[in-house]
Design a protein that fits this description.
single chain; 384 residues; alpha+beta; five-stranded mixed beta sheet; 12 strands; 20% strand
């Protein structure tokens, strides 16, 4: 797989280099400064290309070629003057139609002239599975409140004391603060023509399933983002600077200790699968697998605490804590189909998918969840 990726990257680099040079060819000799300047332009654009995602579609390559070709004089002028120029490059979502690129062929494909049949099962883009509702408390309602108010305790006045017979008991005053969180709506829409529905009925059904999947995913990813934003960082533990060979499992245990010291109970660990494997499968100098009493053989628990593997958690990071501090209320997936503006007379349709959600926890409870960088914590644990 590594060799294939290297080959694909090389092919993409050569294709982009050719597109850039083709765009620069129309320049006159007076516009060209030197071959060195052109090479500099190519090199800088290559840097931009390398920063892009590894999978670049042929459509996007063609679009990038067009942008460079249409603006080549301004690009060269800016490079000569050591200036800078921003070009907005974006693909705007469009209605699903039979003739606007909703469906295209892979490179070099021509439909066979002989008999063939369509496999209506679509090869979907794979996305990580949703899991967060298995970790936090949550309920579904037909109507989600706009705000949820919650009180958190703050330091009060007075204290309990030992008293003797007849002595006045000390007065105590407990104090509280009101906190609130606001409802969020995760939504998207699709549009299509009547011709598209007639010609690609099964595909439209799949597209409707996709928008439901994507709205539900955006909602649950949004919950994770809120929890991560509210999580505290690793401060320290008694294991700091004491371990000659700390691993991912020991980094998790150190974070658990910090959580327990603050009076919370770690219930769950969220980790990327690659970091779980790195914690389990380690060898000694002779190549023997090391047994670790704090990690079970399948990696389902660390120090007795449940581990939830997910690709939604960035590799090298982990989230540990008492996730029951959060309560979430959500609607079901709401799907509406209709027409607006000129759609009725143009035989066009719109469908909207949405979920309402509100996630609630008091700020005083935020220290119950810790987000750590595994490498940073391991460095803190390592004995000098």
């Amino acid at each position: 797989m590594s060799e294939q990726k290297t080959h694909d990257d090389k092919v993409r680099k050569e294709e982009l280099d050719k597109a850039i040079k083709d765009a620069l060819d129309p320049l006159t000799e007076g516009q060209k400064k030197t071959g060195e300047d052109v090479a500099s332009i190519v090199e800088d654009v290559n840097v931009i290309k390398e920063a892009m995602k590894s999978k670049v579609s042929p459509e996007f390559k063609g679009f990038l070629h067009t942008v460079i070709k249409e603006n080549h004089e301004e690009i060269v002028k800016n490079f000569k003057e050591k200036g800078s120029k921003e070009f907005l490059i974006e693909k705007v979502p469009a209605m699903h139609m039979t003739n606007n690129g909703t469906i295209s062929n892979t490179a070099g494909l021509t439909l066979p002239t002989g008999p063939f049949e369509w496999d209506n099962e679509i090869a979907m883009i794979r996305i990580p599975e949703n899991f967060i509702l298995t970790v936090i408390r949550n309920t579904q309602r037909s109507k989600v409140p706009e705000y949820v108010m919650k009180r958190q305790q703050v330091p009060g006045e007075g204290a309990v004391a030992v008293v003797v017979e007849g002595e006045v008991k000390p007065l105590l005053q407990y104090k509280f603060q009101n906190t609130s969180t606001k409802r969020k709506k995760y939504a998207g829409r699709i549009e299509w023509t009547e011709e598209f529905e007639m010609d690609f009925e099964a595909l439209l059904d799949a597209i409707i399933d996709m928008i439901e999947r994507d709205v539900l995913t955006a909602w649950q990813d949004g919950i994770i983002e809120i929890i991560e934003a509210n999580a505290t960082s690793y401060i320290g533990s008694s294991l700091d600077a004491t371990l000659p060979n700390p691993d991912n499992g020991l980094a998790i245990i150190a974070a658990m200790q910090q959580i327990r010291v603050l009076g919370f109970t770690p219930e769950t660990v969220l980790m990327n699968p690659v970091d779980i494997d790195a914690a389990i499968y380690t060898q000694d100098a002779n190549g023997n697998l090391q047994l670790k009493p704090y990690i079970d053989a399948s990696g389902n628990r660390i120090a007795g605490v449940r581990v939830v593997p997910s690709l939604k958690i960035e590799a090298g990071q982990a989230i540990i804590g008492e996730f029951s501090i959060y309560k979430e209320i959500h609607s079901g997936f709401i799907f509406r189909r209709g027409q607006y503006n000129e759609q009725f007379i143009e035989n066009e349709y719109t469908a909207v998918g949405e979920v309402f959600s509100i996630l609630n926890a008091a700020p005083a409870e935020y220290p119950g969840i810790v987000k750590i960088n595994l490498a940073t914590v391991k460095a803190a644990l390592k004995a000098a």
